Amino acid sequence: MTRLFDLTGKTAVAIGGNSVLGSSIAHGLAEHGASIAIVGRNLDKANEVVKEIESNGGKAKAFQADVSSKEAIVQVADEIEKWSGGWDILLNAPGKNSSTPFFDLDMEEWDDIMDVNLKGIVLTTQIFAKRMIEQERKGSIINISSVSSTTPLSKVFTYSVSKAGLNSATQFLAREFAPHGIRVNAIIPGFFPAEQNKKILSPERIESIMNHTPMNRFGTPDELQGAAVWLASENASSFVTGALIRVDGGFGSMTI
To answer: Is 101 annotated in the active site?
Structure first.
């Protein structure tokens, strides 16, 4: 059974791997044998994640890049390729949120969130997947979506729209890359309090979330590791692509 989830000899690029959810997933991949390239705008945070992985016996290196800049992504891809020779797993986990009401939303904020949550995914996948194909590497791309992608949530208009676009991109690219042996899937997390959403979690909103979550609690970052390791493993999920995997405590199953 352990063979199914053995990632020994694999390299994973974790875009947004310095975030709360991204770093937890990176830890899970490293614990199953993968070498991890932690990519983030904040290099200090990325180095902290690397130290934690290394303290647990894993192999990792920090890299700095802004996912909204094609030049920065090309440069970091070059740096990672020199470090590892290539990669087999791409984790797209950057995220930006805002609670600005719709009628107060200006296009500068819209563009800022879209640049990270959707444009950034397109850029990183263009660059990293193309090199996987050129190197004839089969592999796995894992996008981090949100429950707001399928059931738009109040107060997070732009975020919800960006994650709905991410779901569509995931399924389109699953079809595009399947002939090359590259699988593309998305994880749809429920409510995992992190930097970008803590500021809008008022007591009233928390009560509303719990009323819509059968398990009646928030998720913890480590609870995303299992789905990510499964999707990363060619042995365990070789026939899974274009899937939107919910890890949401039942949130998506609720109606009234």
So the answer is: no
